[in-house]
Structure of Trehalose 6-phosphate synthase:
Amino acid sequence: MRVTMRYGAIALAITLVVVLAIWPFATAFVNQWAQRDVEMRSQMLFNAARDQVLSLQGPEDGPRLTVLMERLAEDEGVLAVGLCESGTLRLASSDMPEGFACEQIAVGAGEVFTRADYAGIRAMVAAYPLSAPAEDVRFVILHDYADVEERRSQARIFLLLAAIGVAFGGAALASLVAFWIMRSWTISVRRAIEDAREGRAEDIKHTPTEIGTEIRAALSELDFARRSIDTVHTEWNPETLRIALANELPGSEVIVVSNREPYIHNRDENGEMIVQRPASGLVSALEPVTRACGGTWIAHGSGTGDREAVDGNDRVMVPPSSPAYTLRRIWLTDEEQEGYYYGFANEGLWPLCHIAFVRPVFREPDWRMYQKVNERFAEAVVAEAKRPDPIVLIQDYHLALAPRMIRDRLPDATIITFWHIPWPNSETFGICPYKEEIIDGLLGSSILGFHTQFHCNNFIETVDRVIESRIDRESDSITLKGYEAFVRPYPISIEWPPAAMEGQKPVPEARKAVRKRLGLPEDVQLAVGIERFDYTKGILDRMHGVDALLTAHPELIGHFCFMQAAAPTRSKLANYKSLQEEAEALAREISERHGGPFDVIQLVARHHDPEEVFELFRAAELCIVSSLHDGMNLVAKEFVAARDDEQGVLILSAFAGASRELGEALIVNPYDAHAMGEAFYWALTMEASEQRERMRVMREQVEARNVYRWAGQMLLDAARLRKKQRIMRLIEKERGRAQG
Ligand code: F6P
């Protein structure tokens, strides 16, 4: 409607301009025409009457001539007729104005036209010679000037209407053509949007589009607005995630890819098959999401019973208790694991990305193995994909090259890569001998996620320094090889409520059970630390903190215990082996030095299942997370989730991503043993009411920003990207068609 009005207004304006422009010429033309019209009619009247008039020139013809004149005067627009002889009116019709005088008529050889006013009666006088000028006999016809005027204004009106008609017709025709072009354009864009919404498969050619910046800007504004709406209003849980997926990515195929598998089948020492959940933040986060979305999870089969559990296609449905998705296992040789996992990923990239002052090691054979194994994963994705455009969720630093490899094979895939560890500054990353290849690999992603904006910034800065690409800092996107990758922060989290909370004993019972198991008196205050045995976790540093606490407050000896549960990990690597040895020695040394009825530091180096972990959390007065550097750290969030009694204090490293979200924890610098000792003391003496207030706020935070939100936001962004790409492609196609 608005469009129609706009075109109407344009047509009107064009008409007005045309009419104003031609009006002076039109008026002159009408005046001339009116004059000519009178002259012609006069001439015709005279021609018709001349012979009769000439035949009635005898002395007795006067009455007949008068009758003739009366008849002629009845002609339309004629006022009167008369006969002038030598300047005197000899005869005239009865309507001849009183003031008429033959002398006033200009004398000429032919017909003469004069305009005259006879006491208000305006006339146009035509005089026709009937004889030679010497005798001067003239036949006079007076036309009513009012009649001339009326004809003239009538002609003007007709002309005006004609001009308007023509101008408006022309303008309307032009507007109609423009409107038709715009309408077909709009229809094609709308069709494109509808196609995108319905998820119709289209050819994706990853060529840089030349769509106007206005369209781009409008689309990104739309994105931004939607992003804020989602953030504020959606309550995320498995159901909303499923709905979001079904609504926004209908019929999509989701493929998760990670090194670590979510379920490990192991044969225990008795030959019994047991299914383990690995100690992995990645798995804790992704598993509930994949359970909700379904699909396929491709991972390295590392368990001793893994091969027995799969079918002929290396697939097994999991979770074993209620199968919800397919686990597709990839088998790696020892040599492949050495080079790819232990070597390049964990001796190279892991220390490179964490500020833990462990020197990264890069070996060329490791790098080759890393490339080879990434290829294996990429091939598995292609083999598992049932559609040309799956949504592929690639996890972590083990698979930095896979996004590009998958993009090359499945150009229509939407690839979301999430980097679970920090991204260092560009100077630090610059020491990696394969930096260009790693960045190129990652930029095969459609969306590249980090936990924090800080790490996104570090990544973009690194790209800027390392390779030639187009960086758009407004939209945080990087275009390389004609493909745009968006860099976004998605703070990872845990499921809410956590599955491990199911069947948990009430807190007083958990306290009792754990103390009993550890051989501690019931009233002892317990601190816990639970993670993989990794040098980035600050396990030694927290022990120094405990030492500082007991040195400052020896009265706590016998009333306080620190229990460290540490799952052995990457034990083949020297740094990990030595850490474990060092930690065991330090725990012993501190316990011995402070004495007391029980070991003040109890180190339990084994894998703990999630249920056990949650029981420990519920039994403790405090939980310490003292990472030297950590992307997020989900242990901090799990502790908060475990405390439905709203008690317990979290001591949290300022260098873990979680500290950005859990500000009500006691935030510490793990390098400062004294400050850590004080934080321990503060936690142990904190009033129950203060504990409740802090815990309540943190629980609200973790509940709202749970892992379904993390996945939901990524998938919604992927959905928007797919729609946007489809619209862009169709607009391009339409443009191409329009240009012939
Ligand atoms: O922190 C990154 C991360 O991938 C975690 O998600 C996970 O806990 C760990 O590293 C992987 O450990 P692993 O080498 O045992 O798979």
Remarks:
- The longest strand covers residues 121-129.
- The two ends are 30 Å apart (CA to CA).
- Confidence is low (pLDDT under 50) at residues 192-211.
- The domain at 254-489 is CATH 3.40.50.2000 (Rossmann fold).
